[in-house]
């Protein structure tokens, strides 16, 4: 009976320690930093960085698709860096305007409905 309780206690302790250490090793979700300009771009850059690390650590090549995906992620990171450089050099051009000349809510433009297909 004592052996069984010891085994159960060890199992529970192992699960608690395993789950708690797993929580500390997970990648943090993309969240804008305090005072950060263009938080959506920075969040996208962090998400791409996480994606690149996952692709680099993948054990399977997937017929070359893993390498192609990693290449495209790196290309997307470069585009976002260029977007931030542009926004820094052209601060007045960074705000999108809604029809009527007022900024759109959230800084974006209203989306157009998709064309209807028959």
Structure characteristics:
3 helices, 118 residues, extended, mainly alpha, 58% helix, single chain
Layout of helices and strands, plus pairs?
Elements: H1 2-25, H2 39-57, H3 65-89
Helix pairs in contact: 2-3
Major sheet size, sense and barrel closure: none
Number of helices: 3
Rg from alpha-carbon coordinates? 23 Å
Global mean pLDDT: 74
Instruction: Please state roughly what percent of the residues sit in beta strands, choosing from under 5%, 5-15%, 15-25%, 25-35%, 35-45% or over 45%.
Output: under 5%
Unreliable sequence segments:
none
Residues in helices, as a percent range = 55-70%
**Classification by helices and strands:** mainly alpha
Number of strands: 0
Distance between the termini: 73 Å
Described by the principal axes of the CA atoms, the overall outline is: extended
Summarize the helix and strand pattern as letters: HHH
Summary, kept brief:
This protein is mainly alpha-helical and 118 residues long. 58% of the residues lie in helices and 0% in strands.
Q: What does this entry look like structurally?
A:
This protein has helices at 2-25, 39-57, 65-89. The protein has 118 residues and is an all-alpha fold. The chain starts with a helix and ends in a 29-residue tail after the last helix. The relative contact order is 0.07. It is built from three helices and no strands. 58% of the residues lie in helices and 0% in strands. The protein has a domain at 36-89.
């Amino acid at each position: 009976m004592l052996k069984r309780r010891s085994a159960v206690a060890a199992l529970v302790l192992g699960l608690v320690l395993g789950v708690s250490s797993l929580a500390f090793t997970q990648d943090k979700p993309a969240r804008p930093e305090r005072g950060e300009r263009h938080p959506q771009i920075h969040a996208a850059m962090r998400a791409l960085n996480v994606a690149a690390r996952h692709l680099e650590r993948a054990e399977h090549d997937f017929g070359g698709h893993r390498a192609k995906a990693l290449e495209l992620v790196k290309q997307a990171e470069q585009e976002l860096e260029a977007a931030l450089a542009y926004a820094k050099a052209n601060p007045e051009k960074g705000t999108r305007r809604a029809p009527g000349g007022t900024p759109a809510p959230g800084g974006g433009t209203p989306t157009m409905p998709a064309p209807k297909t028959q």
